[in-house]
Every structure is written in C-alpha cells, then in structure tokens.
Amino acid sequence: MRFTVTVVYDNETLDRSLGVDWGFAAVIVDASGKMLLFDTGAGGPLLEANMMALGFNADAVSAIVLSHFHWDHAGGLATMLHRVPHVPLYVPEVAQGGLPDGAIVVGASPLELSESIYSTGTLGGMEQGIVLLGDRGAFVITGCAHPGVPAFLAAADTLGRPYGLMGGFHGFSDLEKLCALDELYPCHCTQRKEQILRRFPGSAKWCGAGLRVEV
Ligand SMILES: [Zn+2]
Ligand SMILES: [Zn+2]
C-alpha cells in the first residue's frame, strides 16, 4: 500500500499560509483516497484552517486516532467529532479518565486499523503510535513518544522493518538508535531536533506543518 502523510498541525511550519501552535496532527491518505487523522492538535479552529489550506476536507475524514490524551494532541477532538461523529475513534488504553462516547480502546498489542495501517498498541500505559506498511517497510508516526522512541520502533518491528520515523520524539537522546533509519522527521516536542538534523544530514529532514511525505 502507498500513503501520503501530511503534517497539518505543528509548532513550526514550512508554509507561511499555515498557522503555528504547540501541538501535533497529521493526515494520512491511502492509495484509495481514504483519509485518517492522527491526533488533532491543541485547537479545532486552527486544525480546520490548516487542513483546508492544505486541501483536505475535514468532513471526509474516515477515522481518527488519538496518540494520547494530552491537550496538545486531543484539543481539536471535540471539533472533529462534531464534524464526523460516526467515524471510528481509536484511543490508547489508559487507567483513568472518561473516554469519548463510542471510542475504540486499543490495548497493548498492535492492531490493524485499516489496510496496512496499524496502531503500535498502547505503550507505557498511555500512548499509541501509527505504523504504515509500505513497499520499503514500516513508517512510524509518534505523538510525543513519552514511552520512548525505542518502544515505538520495537512495536513497529513486529510488523515490518522500520525505515522511517516522524513525530514528536520528546526528550529522546540515545540518537545512536536512529542510525538504522532511512528517513527521520523530528517535529513537535522533539528536544534534540537540531542535533538530529545535524547528525543525520542524509536521512533527517526539517519537519513542520505542511510537510508531505510519500510512504
Ligand atoms: Zn504529550
Ligand atoms: Zn505533545
């Protein structure tokens, strides 16, 4: 399967017509045109505006995956649920807190959400990532990677060889572990973004709202 991944909400942007805000969201479109939204940023209005500016019709989203319940990923959820109330909503399995009505709770194991699109399963009791299986192997997308980047790569590795990684890497510092990856798109909360870009000039690319990646 082939996919296009577009970052629609981030702390930085590649495109001055897009709004910038602390948070993360990405749109994944598969070869049949089906659109999945991974995370919803911190606020609905900016999410909608950026999606529209990038040519996405928010009403055509066919599934929503929430990496974790932090405000900078779940803030736009109410807006999206108002627009597309009947699409599947996949959330991580957390010990406490009320869940949105009808949410599908993803346990600790990887789960297929759509053809060649998987959740990593809930890692560290709080967060799930996305694994896209393309021709080159597994492309992994994280929200904040609070349970640590290696946990996401290990979960993805059970599905296919990880070759690409995008998203917030948070405080991840064991950069040696990124050597085996062909494509790196550190964004959102990645504390060592500059360092990763400098250390892996061949594989790491600057990431922000408006970035499109073919998988
Ligand atoms: Zn977070
Ligand atoms: Zn975050």
What does this structure look like?
There is one protein chain. The strands form two sheets. A seven-stranded mixed beta sheet has the order 6-5-4-3-2-1-13. A six-stranded mixed beta sheet has the order 7-8-9-10-11-12. 17% of the residues lie in helices and 29% in strands. With 215 residues, it is α/β, with parallel strands linked by helices. It has five helices and 13 strands. One zinc ion (ZN) binds at residues 24, 70, 72-73, 143-144, 168, 188-189.
Ligands (ions, cofactors included): zinc ion
- Derived structural class: alpha/beta
User: What is the domain total for the residues?
Assistant: 1
The level of helicity is 10-25%
Q: What's the CATH topology label? A: Metallo-beta-lactamase, Chain A
Strand content: 25-35%
- So what's the oligomer here? single chain
